[in-house]
Design brief:
heterodimer; A: mainly beta; five-stranded antiparallel sheet; about 55% strand; B: about 110 residues; mainly beta; seven-stranded mixed sheet
Amino acid sequence: ILNVEQSPQSLHVQEGDSTNFTCSFPSSNFYALHWYRWETAKSPEALFVMTLNGDEKKKGRISATLNTKEGYSYLYIKGSQPEDSATYLCAFIDDYKLSFGAGTTVTVRA
Amino acid sequence: NAGVTQTPKFRVLKTGQSMTLLCAQDMNHEYMYWYRQDPGMGLRLIHYSVGEGTTAKGEVPDGYNVSRLKKQNFLLGLESAAPSQTSVYFCASSMGQGATDTQYFGPGTRLTVL
């Protein structure tokens, strides 16, 4: 079982501020990294699938970067809004299955 | 298009009782998964299925059984519930099992075992 770590575990952001957090994963045998967004009382939803070193993906105010050589991915939220409050999960492909981190819970204060 | 649905949404069991959680998907996906989510831990894979009539063990299979009699349904059974099985259970499905195949999740079932 691979160790996928996310930090910090939680963070509070003022509305309008930008923030970022980290997903660390084993750098050997890399295939893909997935980011999911999970709002309270809803289903986790896919945000990004990242496969190439140096990859950068963007969806609205949320973007992610990938460094496969050192084994980390950053997720950025620019100009945070209350609707960005959610738990953000990253998952690493291991033997055709997803190995999830514990998530970073973001709370945006109005 | 309902996507992935789970039944029930909430359940309280007494130790030793049994129950079945139902997952249904309408996307014609081959692959289906059952996860559990516990505080401070990532989603952990219990069992999965690579097609109708097939099942396989995941990371934490003990105490659970599964069946995939129809392509669209994946059932998770607890034969004799224990307090350690108190958790939120998520079902997911995907078209393939490739590195870039996205999994689509259901809304979860919150199970409490007393």
